[in-house]
Write a structure and sequence with these properties.
The structure is a single chain. This protein is 31% helix and 13% strand. With 289 residues, the protein is an alpha/beta fold. β2, α2 and β3 form a beta-alpha-beta unit. α4 crosses α5 and α7 packs parallel to α8.
């Protein structure tokens, strides 16, 4: 393995951290009835890729819709204007517990606006939504659980790939007794297919829920050696095979659709400078081909 330049590491690290600072949402509600029901391909072999999209209404979104890509989310309720017409399911998120995000969430989420509600973003991390399990459970009951009556499926808060993540999730589930959790959402950033498969398997064995991997990238965020572009491509082929072969994995969202990574030489970048898929982006949206 080689090391990324300090600049490349800084770009990726800042891009990951920046998702909490995406601009206040411009809520799109035009043709919501068209996508009121989830795409029947959701969770099926060969159709498990989703997009964590941080580029607003950028027209390049359409370049990433294939039969292998089903859903997208934006770390909030800012729905890209062409999400419906491009054929994406939209997954609104209640990112955290601050009053502004709660207000935006409650004002936006109506029947047909999306299909899955995503819970809080990395609540086990001080630099992200930073919620203790009891507070998160109270917020869930007040703002997420009621959305079941509007026809939404509900995905758990997404903990980071941190050793405290499973403990946080266990405590959240205990604090939220009787809550509806249809899917387990989680994030993974590390090196190697064995780390990915072990991590996902441990979560499934402990909690027994279908899994949405709402962020993943082969990236060492702990200062260690980084993979080369060739190694990331090889890993991605293995990861897609694992996702397709594992029935309880319903979706996997590769991190990288943020302006800071567009056209970047960082191995996990997904777009060329003009927004079109680069080699890694093309591999992901074409089921590893």
């Amino acid at each position: 393995m080689t090391r990324l330049s300090p600049t490349s590491i800084a770009i990726l690290t800042c891009a990951i951290a920046a998702v909490c600072a995406i601009a206040s949402p411009t809520i799109q509600t035009g043709d919501v009835a068209v996508r009121a029901r989830a795409n029947p391909a959701f969770g099926q072999r060969g159709s498990k890729i989703c997009l964590p999209w941080g580029e607003g209404n950028d027209a390049s979104l359409a370049d990433f819709k294939t039969s292998h890509v089903v859903g997208l989310y934006t770390w909030g309720v800012s729905k890209p204007a062409n999400a419906n017409s491009d054929g994406f399911d939209f997954w609104p998120m209640l990112w955290g517990g601050d009053s502004a995000r709660i207000s935006d969430f409650e004002n936006a989420v109506a029947t047909g606006f999306g299909t899955i509600i995503l819970g809080f973003n990395e609540p086990n991390e001080p630099g992200q939504s930073n919620l203790d399990p009891v507070t998160a459970a109270a917020l869930w009951r007040a703002h997420i659980e009621p959305k079941k009556a509007l026809g939404y499926k509900l995905a758990s808060p997404a903990v980071s790939h941190n050793p405290n993540g499973r403990t946080w999730m266990q405590q959240f589930i205990q604090a939220c007794g009787g809550c509806t959790i249809d899917y387990m959402a989680l994030h993974w950033y590390d090196i190697g297919i064995d780390s990915l498969t072990d991590y996902i398997t441990q979560f499934h064995n402990q909690f027994g829920l279908p899994i949405l991997i709402t962020e993943f990238a082969e990236q060492n965020l702990n200062g260690g050696a980084q993979p080369t572009s060739a190694e990331v491509l090889a890993f991605t082929k293995q990861a897609i095979s694992f996702f397709d072969a594992t029935d309880y994995i319903l979706a996997a969202c590769p991190f990288g659709f943020v302006p800071a990574l567009k056209g970047s030489s960082t191995p996990n970048a997904l777009q060329n400078a003009d927004g079109t898929p680069n080699a890694l982006g093309s591999l992901l949206i074409n089921d590893g081909q």
